Amino acid sequence: MKSALRLLAVTVTISGLTLLAYSLATQFDRIDWTSPVFWVFAACVLVGELMPIKIPRQKEVIWVTVSGMFAFSLILTFGTAGALAALIPASIADDFLSKKPLWRWGFNAGVYTLAASAAGGLLYTFSELPRRSDPTHFAGSDLVVILFGGLVFFAVNWCLAGMAVAFLRDAPVFTTLRSNLGLDMVTDGILLTLSPLVVAAADRSLYLIPLLALPMLAAYQAARVAQRNLGLVNDLQEQADENRHLALHDPLTDLPNRSLFHDRVGNAISFAGRNRQGLSVVLMDLDRFKEINDALGHHNGDSLLKEVSRRLVTVVRESDTVARLGGDEFAVLIPAIAHPGDVNRVVEGLLRAFERPFELEELVLKVEASMGLAIYPQHGLDSGTLIRHADVAMYASKQSQAGYEVYQSTRDEHTRDRLALVEGLRKAVANGEFALHYQPKVDVATGRLVGVEALLRWCHNGNFVPPSLFIPLAEHTGLIGLITLWVIETVASQSRTWQKSGVALNIAVNLSMRNLFDRQLPRQIAEAMAQRGMAPERLELEITESGIAADPIRAEAELADLSAMGITLSIDDFGTGHSSLSRLKRLPVDELKIDQSFVTNMVQDKSNAAIVRSIIELGHNLNLRVVGEGVETLGALEQLRAFGCDIVQGYYLGHPLPAAEFLAWREGYSWEAKILDRDQSFAPLRSLAGPEVA
Ligand code: C2E
Ligand code: MG
Ligand code: MG
Q1: Which strands form 278-286's sheet, in the order they lie side by side?
Q2: Other C-beta atoms within 10 Å of 383: how many?
Q3: How far apart are CA 488 and CA 465, in angstroms?
C-alpha cells in the first residue's frame, strides 16, 4: 500500500476507534434499546449499506446510499452513540460481505465515526436536540443547526473517502475531490435534509416509515432510469470514440494511420515553429515484404507487420509518433529536436529494431528496411512537403542500399532557376506544356513498322527542356507519378484514335523505377486503358536495367503484376545496369533494348560490336526479343541484322515526331529506300514491305 494511504488509513482508524469508545462510554445510556424507532432506523441503515444504488459515471461508478439519512436521523433522536451503534455494524457487515481487505473495514468504520461525531458534536454544541426529551419539536434555529450538521456529516465523509481514492490512484487530491463534488452534494444533501422529516414521521407513527419508502422507491427508480440512460449515453459515447479511433488508426497494428500522421506532423510543425525548434519525419519501407507476403501468405505478412510495429514503438520515445501509412510503409515523427544528435539517436534505434531476425511461425527471417529522413525547417515548412521529401530520401536509400538517407536538396536545387523549374514542372500537366513524340520501331527481318516508343517532350516558357534534365527532377520531387499517368492516358487516347483510322501500333511507354514504388500504378494503368478503349496487348512498358537493379525484388513483384495484365515489358538501356543474369532469367519481361551507347558507334568500335552481339545472343537464349536502339547509320543497321537483332529503332529509321507528323512520315516510309544505298555486303532482304502494320 502507498505510504500516504497507509498513514491516512491508520490515522482514521485509530481516531475513529478512540471516538467510538468515547461516544459509547459517555452516551451509551441515551440509547433506548427498547424503542422500536431505534430498531427500524438501524434496520434501514443496514439495508442502505448493503444495497446502495450504483450510478455509472464516465469510467467510474458512484454509490448512493440512504444509510447516511437514517444514521443522521439516529443522531437527531438518540445522539452520536445511537447512530454509531447502528452504523458501525452495518458498515462492517457490508465490508465483510463484499470481501474488502481488513484495513478498509477499519477505515470505513473510522470515517463514519468521525463524520457522525463531528455532526453530533455540532448539534450538541449549538442546539439542545439530541438531549431533548422530544426531539421532534424542531425550533426554527434548530433547522439551521441541522442543516450545518448535515453539511459536516457529508463533508467529513466526502473529504476522507476522496483523499483515500486520490492516494490509491496516485491522482491529485484536490482534483479528485472536486470531480465528484457536484453529484455527491445533490444526492447526499437531499437525503440528509430529509432526516428531520423521517424523525417527525417516525414519532407520529412507525407505520409512516414504510410510506416514506414510496418516494424513496421513486427516487431509486429515477436513479435507475438515469443510470440506464447514462449507460446508454456512455455506450454511444464509447461507440463514437471507437469510430473516431478506427478512422484515424490502422486496424492491423492500431498505429496512427496516414491521415492522423499528417495531422500530427502539422501540429508538431506549428509547435516547433513557435518554439524555434526542429523536428524530423522518417519514412521507411520493408525491403522484401511483398516477397514474404506472397511466399508465406498474408497471415505471416500480417504478423511481420505487427511485430515490426511493436518493435518500432519500443525503440522510440513516448513523445514520438510511429504510424503505418499503408502496406509495408511506416513513418516516425520525432517532434522538438533540440540537437542534431537527437535524430541520429532515433535513426540508430530504428535500425536496431531490425537487427534481430523476425520469428514467423516456424520460420526465422532477417528483414531490413530502407529509411528516408526529412528535417524541419531545412527540408520543408509544411507536413506535405516534409513527408514527400522523406519519401524521396527513402527512395534514395533503396537505391544506395545504405539503410537510411537524409533528404538532400542538392546545392543547385536552391538556385532560383532550379526552383523555378520545379515549380514549372508542378504546373506543366495543368498548363498543357507536355507533348508526346513517337519514334518508330521496325522489324529487321521484314522491314515492317511494328510499334512506336512514346517519348515525353516539355516545352516550358517557349524552351525545350530535355527529358534527361526534367525526368530526374520529377523523380526527385515525386511528381513522376502524376506525369507518368498523363503519359499513359495520352498514349491510350492516341492508340484509340489510331485504331479508329486503321493504324494498329504497339506503343511503348517509359516507366521510372519510382513508378514501381507506387502501388496504385497497375490499377491506374488498367483504368486509363479501359476508359479509353486501349487493349493491354497494345501497351509496352520500358523500365531501365539500372532501375530494376536498384530494388530487384520489388521490381520483380511489380513487373509480375503488370505482366499479368497482358502488358508487354521491356528492359531499357540494357548493358549498363549490372543486373544479375539469374535474376534476369526470372523477370517476367519480353524484350531487351540494347543501350544505344553500344549501338551508335558499333561499326567503328569492335568491342561495342562484340557486346551487342553477346547481348543479342543472351536475349535469344532467354527467349527475349532484342531491340537495337540508337541506330544512326545504315552500317549499324546492317550489323544488327547480321547479328540477328529483331527490332531496330534510331534516327536512321525515323526521329521521334508528334503524332500528326509521325503519320505523315509513316505514309512516306519505305524500307526499300532505307536500304537502297546499302553496302554490297548487306545480304538481300526478302521482304520490301511498306508501312504495313503488325
Ligand atoms: P530511352 O527510353 O532510352 O529513349 C531513347 C532516347 O534516345 C530518346 O531520347 C530518343 O530521342 C533518343 N534516340 C532515339 N534514336 C536515337 C539515335 O539514333 N541516336 C541518338 N543519339 N539518340 C536517339 P530522349 O527522348 O531525349 O529521352 C531520353 C530518356 O528520357 C529516355 O531514354 C527515357 O529514359 C527518358 N524518357 C523519355 N520519355 C520518358 C517518359 O515519358 N517517362 C520516363 N520515365 N522517362 C522518359
Ligand atoms: Mg525507352
Ligand atoms: Mg533506351
Answers
A1: 321-326, 329-337, 278-286, 369-376, 404-406
A2: 21
A3: 20
- CA dist list (Å): 293 to 297, 375, 390, 561: 5, 32, 25, 14
Ligand 1 touching residue 466 (CB < 6 A)? yes
Length of the chain: 694
Separation CA 618–CA 612 (nearest Å): 10
- Rounded distance from Cα 453 to ligand 2 centre (Å): 7
- Tens digit of each residue's pLDDT (9 = 90 or more) over 409-441: 663 344 456 667 888 898 998 899 999 999 999
Residue-wise pLDDT tens digits, 657-680: 999 999 999 999 999 888 865 543
Question: What is the spatial distance between Cα 81 and Cα 86, in angstroms, rounded to a whole number?
Answer: 9
Please give the Cα distance from 170 to 4 (Å, whole number): 10
Residue type present at position 294 = D
Instruction: Report the C-alpha gap between 593 and 508 in whole angstroms.
Output: 12
More confident: 471 or 127: 471
Among 483, 602, 629, 662, which is best to mutate for testing ligand 1, by the most ligand atoms less than 8 A from CB?
629
What is the per-residue burial (b if ≥16 Cβ within 10 Å, else e) of 43-57? Answer: ebbbebbeebbebee
Q: What is the CATH number of the domain that holds 505?
A: 3.20.20.450
Question: Which of left, alpha, beta for 170 (phi over 0: left; psi -120 to 50: alpha)?
Answer: left
- Whether residues 319 and 453 share a domain: the answer is no
Rounded CA gap, 129 and 63, in Å?
A: 30
Quick one: average pLDDT of 57-62? Answer: 58
CA-600 nearest atom, ligand 1:
19
* Pocket lining: 651 vs ligand 1, CB cutoff 6 Å: yes
Please indicate, yes or no, whether residues 87 and 153 belong to a single structural domain of this protein: yes
Query: 602 and 533 in one domain?
Result: yes
Name the grid cell of 354.
531490425
Q: Into how many domains does the chain fold? A: 3
Look up the CATH number of the domain holding residue 84. 1.10.1760.20
135: helix, coil or strand? coil
Q: CB of 455 closer than 6 A to ligand 1?
A: yes
CB 123 within 8 A of CB 28: no
Residue type, 306: K
Largest CA distance in the chain: 143
Instruction: State pLDDT tens for residues 160-172.
Output: 888 888 887 777 7
Non-local (6+) Cβ contacts of 65 within 8 A are 48, 49, 52, 53
For residue 402, tell me if it sits in a domain: yes
Helix (H) or strand (E) segment spanning residue 585: helix 581-586
Higher pLDDT, 416 or 118: 118
Is residue 186 located within the same domain as residue 55? yes
CB 45 within 8 A of CB 81: no
97-134 as b/e, with b when 16 or more CB fall inside 10 Å? Answer: eeeeeeebbbbbbbbbbbbbbbbbebbbeebebbeeee
**Residue pair 53/223 in contact by the 8 Å Cβ criterion:** yes
Determine which helix (DSSP H) or strand (DSSP E) holds 234, and give its type and residue range: helix 208-248
Question: Using CA atoms, how far apart are residues 501 and 504, in angstroms rounded to an integer?
Answer: 9
Domain check: are 262 and 213 in the same one? Answer: no
| Same domain as 544, residue 466 | yes
Domain enclosing residue 154, as ranges:
3-232
The pTM of this model reads 0.52
